[in-house]
Amino acid sequence: MATLRILLLLALSLIAAVSAHNITDILLKFPEYSQFNNYLTQTKLNDEINLRETVTVLVLNNTILSQFVANQSLAVIKTALSIHILLDYFDRPKLLVIGGGSTITTTLYQTTGKAAGSTGFVNITDLAGKKVGFGSAATGSKLDALYERSVKQIPYSISVLEISSPIIAPGILNMPPPPPRVNFTSLLETAGCKTFARLISDTGVMRIYETAEARGLTVFAPTDAAFKAPGLPDFRKLTNTEFDSLLLYHAIPVYVPKVSLMAEKYPIRTLASNEINGFYLTVTTKGDSVTLVSGVDNSRVESMVLDSVPVSIFKIDHVLLPAGFFPQSPSPAVVPVPEASPPSPSPPASAPSAHRPIASSPAPVAAKSPIVSPPGSSGFISRFWFWSCSGSG
Ligand SMILES: *[C@@H]1O[C@H](CO)[C@@H](O)[C@H](O)[C@H]1NC(C)=O
Ligand SMILES: *[C@@H]1O[C@H](CO)[C@@H](O)[C@H](O)[C@H]1NC(C)=O
Ligand SMILES: *[C@@H]1O[C@H](CO)[C@@H](O)[C@H](O)[C@H]1NC(C)=O
Ligand SMILES: *[C@@H]1O[C@H](CO)[C@@H](O)[C@H](O)[C@H]1NC(C)=O
Ligand SMILES: *[C@@H]1O[C@H](CO)[C@@H](O)[C@H](O)[C@H]1NC(C)=O
């Protein structure tokens, strides 16, 4: 009996191992699809593919793909490629026995809710001479993307097929590209994050966001209500550098849409991360709900304000308090700093929104240049932290 149970468990674990797939890993073995693979990673469509239990990816070789995506924005490329991800399993045998010679299948683009008309669907038709054609299901589209070959199959989990040319849905390539610069102020104000918008603007942290933007950026913007929550530490007690770090802690130097955020297993480096304090964030999920954990407090993701590769903005319900500044227990976090260091400058008497020269902001390449608090400031800070104890406690 015991042996049988072990065998059964072994079989089950094998099934689990087999049904999980990793599109990045699959395509790594085929250098002729390396560009397709790179774009899947950049747009984070790879996470969407890996999450699907049953999926078919129609790939294009480097020659065809580079012509197709030439001069297109990453946002348009993401949409165009999401039409090549079918939410069903098709291998060669299945393609050759399509009932009635033709079928319509749903693509990943349809799940975005942005697909107009039938642009989120693909028509697969058995053409004469054992050829199979793929095309947009939107009226007037051609079926000129032909099946070329089977690249990789893991029945009935993932199938990767090469097609001869891209599936082009009407209007997709003519979509207006997103503006080269995200207007954080207007997006955040509209989303109910006016305080955060004002703070990143007044401190100059927005400039750092804008510099990081082109290479990928995700911002976690606390709502206006979050800044009025009881028990928040007194931010006026922070030095300018520390307050900048607090704001930089609300962004990470990569584009992360919701599905990818939910898939994050490891602590995430933020724009404030440095060797001394870490300033990492971790993600926990429960059903569809996503929570960011700073080590001091938790923030729930309320909604997505913007998802436009390479930038995404989430709205969160609590200000993220980095553990390096805000020790959890009364015993202050010990940060080794030289005894001889001079104390940091006095905190500003006014609110942190006071105008300060932008030059005092950390270097623009925030992700690479750690934002280190001035030596000696940690001890100084820990003495002031819990104003709530003396204030509202
Ligand atoms: C998928 O494979 C790539 C390349 O081997 C690897 O870097 C990545 O961590 C894998 N992803 C997951 C979720 O295991
Ligand atoms: C891609 O396919 C086209 C047409 O079949 C072919 O001419 C070209 O050499 C291929 N490119 C690569 C990188 O395999
Ligand atoms: C892409 O843009 C460059 C410069 O603007 C232009 O020379 C080239 O012809 C364009 N390529 C395509 C495929 O449109
Ligand atoms: C797919 O497209 C072809 C050609 O436009 C059309 O004849 C066929 O009816 C379509 N298939 C389905 C299932 O709509
Ligand atoms: C961004 O939006 C704000 C508020 O709508 C506006 O005042 C500002 O001029 C915009 N900035 C740019 C660079 O377009």
From TrEMBL:
Keywords: Cell membrane, Glycoprotein, GPI-anchor, Lipoprotein, Membrane, Proteoglycan, Signal. It is a lipid-anchor; GPI-anchor. InterPro entries: FAS1_dom_sf, FAS1_domain, Plant_FLA. The keyword Signal applies. GO terms for cellular component: plasma membrane; side of membrane. May be a cell surface adhesion protein. This is FAS1 domain-containing protein. It comes from Deinandra increscens subsp. villosa. The lineage of its organism: Eukaryota, Viridiplantae, Streptophyta, Embryophyta, Tracheophyta.
